[in-house]
């Protein structure tokens, strides 16, 4: 299988591995029609209009240029690091760990909305998708994609519970459905929603969600 390791001086550095051999080659970005299938695959990965990242047991192994742009980190700053680097805090890192396992364990992709923490501390509202290469142990090797759907969120900050409620609202869930997902009472969800409306000076949920996405709502 071929993978991009890094980009430098106008070249994509491609590593190709099998059970016994790893080969590394450098391919120009403008590689033409005489290129191999592997080189086209590497260019497609690197130039994809969405952020792509491969992790093994939650450690970042590679990512493409778009993911670096979204996160604000360079590739060298990300590769070999825990994905914790891109989440809001330790509790968020633990909370999202098993989300989507039901789908991933049967070989199906999982998608939802996620907040991506950037190098400068701001948050990006992204459409998130995950597909594992190891369904028996989904986090052993998994590919994530991030597509920007919102402007950076600077202030005010969100608590973990507020983020959960925002995600539920964006998914079109009722307070009762969100409460069931989180193991809370509907009244608690209503209280958090009311607090969010006040914090963002929004008259209704539609106005509230516009603070977190530039999608047509």
Key features of this structure:
Arc Repressor Mutant, subunit A; three-stranded antiparallel sheet; globular; alpha+beta; Beta-Lactamase; 32% helix; 26% strand; five-stranded antiparallel sheet; 9 helices; single chain; 217 residues; 8 strands
Tell me the radius of gyration: 19 Å
Kindly report the name of the CATH homologous superfamily of the largest domain: PAS domain
> Which whole number gives the mean pLDDT?
80
Roughly how many Å apart are the termini? 41 Å
How many discrete structural domains?
A: 3
Kindly estimate the percentage of residues that lie in beta strands according to DSSP.
Answer: 25-35%
Task: Tell me how many strands there are.
Answer: 8
Instruction: Give helix % range.
Output: 25-40%
Pattern of helices and strands: EEEHEEHHHHEEEHHHH
Largest sheet: 5 strands, antiparallel
In the CATH scheme, the class of the largest domain would be Alpha Beta
Supply the helix-strand structural class: alpha+beta
- Looking at the structure, what is the overall shape? globular
Largest sheet, spatial ordering of strands:
5-4-8-7-6
CATH topology of the largest domain: Beta-Lactamase
- Poorly predicted residue ranges: 8-12, 18-34
| Helix run count | 9
CATH architecture assignment name of the largest domain? 2-Layer Sandwich
């Amino acid at each position: 299988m071929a993978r991009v390791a890094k980009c430098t001086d106008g070249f994509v550095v491609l590593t190709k591995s099998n059970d016994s051999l790893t080969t590394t080659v450098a391919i120009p970005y403008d590689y033409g029609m005489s290129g191999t299938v592997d080189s086209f695959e590497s260019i497609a990965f690197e130039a994809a209009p969405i952020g792509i990242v491969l992790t093994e047991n939650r450690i970042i192994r590679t990512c493409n240029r778009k993911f670096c742009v979204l996160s604000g980190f360079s590739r060298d700053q990300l590769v070999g690091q825990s994905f914790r680097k891109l989440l809001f805090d330790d509790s968020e890192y633990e909370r999202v760990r098993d989300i989507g396992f039901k789908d991933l364990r049967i070989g199906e992709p999982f998608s939802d909305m996620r907040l991506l923490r950037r190098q400068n501390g701001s948050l990006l509202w992204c459409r998130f998708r995950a597909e594992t290469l190891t369904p028996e142990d989904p986090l052993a090797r998994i590919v994530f994609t991030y597509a920007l759907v919102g402007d950076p969120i600077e202030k005010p900050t969100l608590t973990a519970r507020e983020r959960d409620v925002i995600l539920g609202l964006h998914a079109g869930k009722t307070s009762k459905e969100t409460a069931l997902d989180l193991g809370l009472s509907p009244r608690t969800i209503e209280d958090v929603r009311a607090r969010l409306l006040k914090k963002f000076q929004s008259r209704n949920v539609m106005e509230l969600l516009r603070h977190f996405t530039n999608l047509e709502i």
